[in-house]
Specification:
There is one protein chain. By secondary structure, the chain is mainly beta. It has one domain: Lipocalin. The longest helix is centred in the N-terminal third of the chain and has 16 residues.
């Protein structure tokens, strides 16, 4: 009788662990995200919204990318976006990992503006540092935070 109860409890626990997942949960990169990039003085320099989709093997597909605050280095130029991430977690819902993203202008000239983000995933927040290199006047660095958009906002 005791073995039967233990087996039943294990089955119930495994069944419940598979229930209730959604794309906005802290263990899933898939979905809509909003980013704020600040300079070393804490002023917002860039902001964007995008959709991330896991592409397998640490790859990240970036779609629906839109700067909501561009600064002069990305104001009127088309861009290309790529990303990478790794996630790990435990049964208590603690999700952690690494994140990388590159946003590059598409100029016909040899020099492009390149915005590189490197950070960590902690639950439903991605944070880290950014650097910008490129044409004259298009350089800088600071910190960033990326999170799912607020519900109803």
């Amino acid at each position: 009788m005791r073995k039967t109860n233990i087996i039943a409890l294990l089955f119930l626990a495994l069944t419940m662990a598979g229930c209730g997942s959604n794309t906005s949960g802290p263990g899933n990169i898939n979905g809509n995200w909003s980013a704020t990039l600040t300079d070393t003085n804490g002023a917002t320099v860039y902001a964007f919204t995008t959709t991330f989709t896991e592409a397998g093997a640490g790859g990240l597909t970036v779609t629906n990318f839109t700067f909501t605050s561009t600064g002069p280095c990305f104001a009127t130029y088309p861009t290309s976006e790529t990303g990478t991430f790794t996630l790990s977690g435990n049964l208590n819902g603690s999700v952690m990992g690494t994140f990388g993203m590159t946003i590059t202008t598409i100029f016909p000239a040899a020099t492009n503006n390149v915005l590189t983000l490197q950070g960590t995933v902690n639950g439903s927040t991605i944070s880290g540092t950014w650097t910008l290199t490129g044409l004259t006047g298009c350089s800088g660095n600071g910190t960033f935070t990326i999170h799912p958009p607020m519900a109803g906002g």
